[in-house]
Amino acid sequence: MQKDKSMSKDISIKFISEKSGFDPSTVSRVINGNAREYRISKETEEKILRVAKKYDYKANPVAVNLRVKKSHTIGLVIPTLENPFFVNITSLLNKELSKMGYNIILTESYDDVETEGEMIKQLLERNIDGLLIIPCEEADQNAGTIEEAFQDGVPILCIDRYINNSSVPYIITDNEKAAYDGTEFLIERGHKQLACIQGLKNATPTIDRKKGFENAVADYNMEPFYIGGNAFSVECGYKEALKIIDEVGNPDAIFAMSSTIALGVMEAVEERGLNIPEDISLIGFDNNVFLDYLSTPLTTIAQPIHQISELAVGALIDHIEGTIDLKDWESKMLSTEIILRKSVA
After folding, report:
1. Superfamily name with CATH number, domain 5-59
2. Beta bridge partners of 338
3. pLDDT digits (tens, 9 = 90+) for 55-67
4. What values do phi and psi take at 151, rounded to 5?
5. φ and ψ at residue 328, rounded to 5 degrees
6. Domain segments of the chain as ranges
7. First-to-final CA distance of the chain
8. What predicted TM-score, i.e. pTM, was given to this entire model?
9. 171-191: per-residue pLDDT in tens?
């Protein structure tokens, strides 16, 4: 049968999977020459190759390059180095990779989907051995590119955030439960009017944390005093806190979805002549050593970033060295810890 050349550029592992009737991981292993290694039958291999030939599908050259020669280099895409959380986790990932003899190529997406897509494309064109991604807010728009590279054999792992409708594995915090626990912590200390200042609205941590906040308030037969914000930044915390105080009224407590947001809240509260925790209690999210040295040390929900980094690097290197297959690896959701300081009455 004549090959449809006009379609060839759009053919993917998923397409061949649908046409052949075999799952994407089996198709990927056959296309990339790993049928014998995974004990795939000759009959299955031949059928998949026939379908691939029919539609003129060829293996991703990036994946082929990864199998041929190791560079001991890992690509890392993060939203921004302006956020201390991403700085900390980048440092830990670099430390863990250095122990294993690997280097990092670091890129920033600035939480912009087009920039993220371009950074991923550039990294995949280089001779990297694997890719770690903290997806941007609208990362679902790049899911096709990331999924295709993953199915074609590029070791990819998401950390801190995940991509909806994707088989790419992830290691994240249980953000919904963490926010529930933090909100319950405030309620059990007598706070009834609870405000929440959130990060990027479409980022998966924000969605999950907001759900946890709302569920905790509802379980105690209360209503949210206020929910607003759309950035994990000091400026967001500052502007939203002023809006709450000036337009809505003084809440008993504010749940800030990041330590950067919490810093902005502190500035706004002080500017209005109020005190933390005497007038307004405050709990943040993420932990950093500097939080102990604020005028009012911040109570916060700490993510296990050391564990996230160790697990991510361990899984990625194990895949590269053939010990595990990330396509069969179970994603991880880790627990948090409330660090008690002095910002909650």
Report:
1. lambda repressor-like DNA-binding domains (1.10.260.40)
2. 301
3. 888 766 555 555 5
4. -70, -25
5. -110, 5
6. 5-59, 71-173+305-336, 175-302
7. 75
8. 0.79
9. 999 999 999 999 999 999 999
